[in-house]
Design goal:
single chain; alpha+beta; Diaminopimelate Epimerase, Chain A, domain 1; 2 domains
Length: 328
């Protein structure tokens, strides 16, 4: 089987795109899982996950996200930007609707976040603060900037689904530089009584008014350069505790670069949504010859590097890292 795959990243959160939208490719569920485990291996092509871009009966395209461990994610904000970029390229639409596991979401091409870097705005919703929607097994309906003594005796946590499950806490530099995040995230992503399905764990630090830093341990992946839904959820949490404001642009920095988020609240329905705005940058395109029954046996027949895009994004990332060093 011949597969043309694109390596692309949003804030350094990298993916392989496989096109089932404009090609005749199709896969079984077992084949998707195998492909993700093999191709995302850092000793192979390497990626945090595979984005299958598919036909949809009621949207312009459909996105399915398979993590590097073969599990499927219900949403991925950085991945959605990458799908928006690819779909924009192949369909020529600047505004689109993309079907995800739980909801159809609006995406659109927007002003560059950094000169020359293709940038897309995507909708992150639905949002739920009900702990049962993560699920989180506690004797409360919500956890919003509160202690979770079963996990830690002093950190204040917020739990929400967007719709991926997230556990978020604001910390200082000393906590960020410790091993605590890895220890706690590992605990809640192994068999445990609190989060039976695991959870994405983010540590957030305020930088300046209107700007935050977010580092995320992703369920099914581990530490990544950035997690789009985590940055969106973290922005919402900072608004809920008065650190940032609704309807105002928030600069969100991460190890892979930066994005912007705007948190919206519909008072009539009491519903939240978040705009996630950031890059979608191609790294390379590769033509693979692969035995779908034994996907570990594959050959890269052709490979085209997007050198200029990569260099330009690296320039922005270096500027971000220099800025972060002044805030630690």
């Amino acid at each position: 089987m011949l597969i043309e795959g694109f390596k692309i990243h949003g804030s350094g959160n990298d993916f392989l795109i496989i096109d089932e939208l404009t090609t005749t490719l199709t896969f079984t569920e077992a084949e998707r899982e195998k492909l993700a485990k093999v191709l995302c291996n850092r000793e192979k092509l390497g990626a945090d996950g595979i984005l299958f871009v598919m036909k949809s009966e009621h949207a312009d395209a459909r996105m399915r996200v398979f993590n590097a461990d073969g599990s499927e994610a219900s949403m991925c904000g950085n991945g959605l930007r990458c799908v928006a970029r690819y779909t924009n390229d192949v369909l020529g639409l600047d505004k689109m609707t993309v079907e995800t596991m739980k909801v159809n979401l609006l995406v659109e091409k927007t002003d560059d976040i950094y000169e020359g870097i293709p940038t897309f705005k995507v909708e992150i919703s639905p949002v739920s603060f009900r702990v049962k929607d993560l699920p989180l097994v506690i004797e409360r309906d919500q956890l919003l900037n509160q202690l979770l003594p079963e996990l830690h005796d002093s950190l204040l946590f917020s739990a929400l689904a967007v719709p991926n499950p997230h556990l978020i806490t604001l910390v200082d530099s000393s906590v960020l530089q410790s091993d605590l995040q890895e220890d706690l995230a590992t605990k809640v992503n192994q068999p445990n009584d609190l989060f039976p399905d695991g959870v994405n764990v983010s540590f957030v630090k305020e930088l300046t008014p209107g700007s935050i830093y977010v580092r995320t341990f992703e369920r099914g992946v581990g530490f990544t350069n950035a997690c789009g839904t985590a940055m969106s959820a973290s922005s919402l949490v900072t608004c809920s505790i008065g650190l940032n404001s609704l309807e105002q642009e928030i600069s969100v920095y991460n190890n892979g670069g930066k994005v912007k988020c705007i948190v919206h609240h519909d008072e009539e329905s009491n519903a939240y949504s978040i705009d996630l705005i950031g890059n979608a940058t191609y790294e390379f395109k590769a033509l693979l010859e692969i035995d779908i029954d034994q996907p570990e046996v594959f050959t890269v027949l052709e490979k085209h590097e997007y050198e200029e895009e990569t260099k330009l994004y690296a320039k922005m990332r270096d500027e971000v890292q220099s800025f972060l060093k002044t805030k630690w």
